[in-house]
Amino acid sequence: MLPAIHLKKEDVSNTFHQHLGTEKGNNDPQYLTEAARNHLREKFVQSQLAITGVNFAIADTGAIVVCTNEGNADLGVHAAHIHIACMGIEKIIPSTQHLGIFLRLLARSATGQPITTYSSHFNKPAAGKQMHIVIVDNGRTSQLAKPDFRNALKCIRCAACFNTCPVYRRSGGHSYHTTVAGPIGAILSPNMDMQANADLPFASTLCGSCTNVCPVKIDIHQQLWKWRQTLMAGGYGGVSKKAGMQLMATVLARPALYRFAGTMARKMMHLFPGLLKNKNLNPWYKQRNMPAPPKQSFREWYKKNNA
Amino acid sequence: MSAREIMLKRIAEGRPALIPLEVTVSPVESTYPGLIEKFSEVLQGIGGEIKVVNHISFVDEYLYHIEAKGNRVVNCMKGLERPSELLSGKGQASDYENVFVACIKGTLGVAENASVWVDEGDMVNRLLPFICQHLVLVIDAENFVANMHQAYQKIDTLKSGYGTFIAGPSKTADIEQSLVIGAHGPRSLKLFVIEQ
Fold this sequence. Notes:
The structure holds two protein chains of two kinds.
Chain A: H1 9-20, H2 29-46, E1 49-52, E2 56-58, E3 64-68, H3 72-79, E4 82-88, E5 92-93, H4 99-110, E6 118-122, E7 130-136, H5 140-144, H6 160-164, H7 166-171, H8 182-192, H9 209-213, H10 220-233, H11 239-252, H12 255-271, H13 273-276, H14 298-305
Helix pairs in contact in A: 1-2, 2-3, 8-10
Chain B: H1 3-14, H2 35-45, E1 49-53, H3 57-68, E2 73-75, E3 85-86, H4 93-96, E4 101-105, E5 108-110, E6 115-119, H5 120-123, H6 128-131, E7 134-140, E8 144-145, H7 148-154, E9 162-166, E10 171-172, E11 180-181, E12 188-194
Parallel strand pairs in B: 1-12, 2-3, 2-4, 4-7, 5-8, 7-12
Antiparallel strand pairs in B: 5-6, 6-9, 10-11
């Protein structure tokens, strides 16, 4: 959903001006969409082969359902000679009557529409044409074998968890560096590659908003929390995170040490402000200002004022 | 072992214990006072137009006026007299590229989401409802249901090789989430309801 949400209409306008020859500086979405329509129509009509995804596959009929608002899937497929539809095993639902539930869920949870503009049911290719369905594993059977995480395979890719996530809404899809972004991507991707995607389950507030809006009731924030434990136990957390956690545990468990550390930290911040404001030593400071160090701790203030 | 065998084996090994399937989807009763009224309200909300008429000759008249202005009108319905091009054979994409209006019979209207089920048998060529600039659908007044649960009890999705629910004109919000009507498919959708 909304693949170019990180771009402003000015960016789209510049790209279109450069490649499609649209008017420079015309940022009107209506005008830009019209330009894309005319350009892509030619490609649709000339193409011999069309590749689509699949929204739902029906076990007892072998049919597939593809949903779009633009009509791009249908235009592409029906104009071409060969249709290749790619899907994962989790797209399969038992029977046609269950579509009544899933088609409602999909559009309502994605954009708030009552249904997508086109919900197309493919049983077989048109006369003289070809239709191929490719079922891709890509980590799904291994996710299925993990009792803590298999629930994530219920996902219907509505993106409701994206729309509600305070992290996604600020950072956008590219910050997830994976095919599926957002909260659901953060629990699917570590299954594919724990090393490469170890950062994702930690980049969450665990507020639970994703779980709350999920129409197929995936326990997303619980799985984020479980992935953190799995990743740390497997040694994918990184040395600094592990050392930092150990240091915190030691300090927080000893009140005297905690008080001493606090006093020292305030002194250091006061005497050597450059240490904290060094962007190499303190990545936090890269996009933020540090507050002025307080003169005393809350404990000291409380003791003084309530003696 | 082939990729298919490996996948099936891994699924058999990794899947949880099976539980009985709830076979029937419980019906959802309609609370709409009038199905066509509800349909009409939703359709207008998603950018479509609806016209309730008492005879199919109104559709004839409408298409004739569009054609008279020099536009290519393609008709897939029996019972219309005036539009010249009655489509029966299959063609290629390039044959339909310049179709301005296509007129197709709808099987069933769903009030809750203003979608219309269109079967391949009625569209002659699967491409037609998508490649035309403007789409006209025609449906009988008695062929409306309240919701998707009822719709799937009425339609036969296996009647032909393909069928689709169409709800309004094509649209997109890909550029800064501004809604634009007329993405890749038709720029408008007009539904005639024939009330005999």
